[in-house]
Design the sequence.
């Protein structure tokens, strides 16, 4: 049996979404060799496969990767396909080396070198950046398996449009931006309940004059003030991560949900008689459940001893603490409140590429 083809690169970036592309941009700017690999056939496919009506929760003005503004009017909320096309154009404009249709099945270490297995191929690297982000493993409670089989269950990752659902009432679980927008869409054709903690809402309605005045201040606070480098930012991080909760509602307002006849209900705590039970002990008779309960970072393929906190490898602004040369990108509050947003990954990527550059320079000088 022949040996597996092996490819070596200084830095292997696993994941070709916005986090991986921003990392590639800064590594190229520093003239460091790297390769981005991604499981999707095309750059941007992670966005193309989301639900049909999805738009970014930030306007084009605040959705740019480093070096290339998002095209179009600055106060426009880009669609998922516009976002996918932007990412594809970004990779092409900067000539970022990407191999698509490469799915990594395992990551291990042999001495100072990382080894990633991908089908019949092996990639080795001095540094690895995990840029697969938070949208890999849907977070669904265990008791979902106890719901009656007649109830259609779908996670927001697999939801596309209302035609997927069965006639009858729908319970949307998770009341942050994704849940609120999906609930509003479904309310036209289904009696809809929305369950979960109220995440609050932005202070102004999107697109209004007050919004255009206040949002620059909100974005500055989200990206420059609420950072892990100061007590206020760390307090905000703990607020959003313990327990995990979404950012305040952007386009959808509380009054929009009320006007659409959507009933807000407490969180779902279990199942009785095959139907969902709420925290106030009510049982809802539903035909559909849409889980907008977020995602967990999938580390099952990482065969490395890691300290995991809050579902992430323990890290300092993306630098993994107990595996020199291993980095993570695209995490919630990696550096600031904006870290998990397209417009916020650039600064995190700059930090990581600088750390990689210093690490390799130090390694080179130590061998002289």
Sequence:
């Amino acid at each position: 049996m022949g040996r597996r083809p092996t490819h070596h690169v200084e830095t292997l970036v696993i994941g070709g979404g916005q986090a991986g592309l921003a990392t590639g941009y800064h590594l190229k700017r520093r003239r460091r060799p790297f390769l981005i690999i991604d499981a999707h056939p095309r750059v941007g496919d992670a966005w193309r496969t989301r639900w049909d009506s999805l738009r970014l929760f930030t306007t084009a003005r605040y959705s740019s990767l480093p070096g290339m503004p998002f095209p179009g009017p600055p106060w426009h909320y880009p669609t998922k396909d516009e976002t996918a096309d932007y990412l594809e154009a970004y990779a092409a404009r900067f000539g970022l080396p990407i191999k698509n249709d490469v799915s990594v099945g395992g990551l291990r270490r042999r001495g100072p070198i990382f080894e990633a297995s991908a089908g019949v191929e092996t990639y080795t690297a001095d540094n690895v950046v995990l840029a697969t982000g938070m949208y890999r493993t849907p977070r669904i409670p265990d008791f979902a398996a106890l719901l009656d089989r007649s109830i259609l269950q779908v996670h927001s990752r697999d939801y596309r449009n209302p035609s997927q659902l069965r006639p009858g009432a729908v319970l949307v679980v998770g009341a942050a931006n994704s849940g609120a927008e999906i609930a509003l869409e479904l309310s036209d054709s289904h009696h809809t309940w929305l369950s979960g903690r109220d995440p609050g809402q932005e202070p102004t309605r999107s697109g209004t004059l007050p919004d255009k005045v206040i949002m620059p201040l909100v974005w500055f606070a989200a990206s420059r003030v609420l950072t892990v480098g100061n007590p206020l930012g760390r307090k905000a991080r703990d607020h959003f991560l313990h327990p995990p909760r979404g950012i305040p509602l952007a386009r959808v307002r509380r009054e929009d949900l009320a006007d659409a006849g959507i009933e807000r209900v407490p969180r779902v705590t279990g199942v009785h008689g095959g139907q969902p039970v709420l925290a106030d002990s009510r049982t809802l008779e539903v035909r559909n459940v849409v889980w907008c309960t977020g995602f967990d970072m999938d580390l099952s393929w990482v065969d490395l001893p890691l300290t995991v906190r809050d579902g992430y490898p323990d890290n300092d602004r993306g630098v993994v603490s107990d595996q020199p040369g291993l980095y993570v990108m695209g995490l919630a509050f990696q550096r600031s409140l904006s870290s998990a947003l397209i417009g916020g990954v650039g600064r995190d990527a700059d930090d990581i590429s600088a750390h990689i550059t210093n690490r390799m320079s130090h390694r080179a000088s130590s061998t002289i």
Summary: The chain has a mean pLDDT of 94. The chain has two domains: 6-136+297-366, 139-291. Residues 345-366 form the longest helix (22 residues).
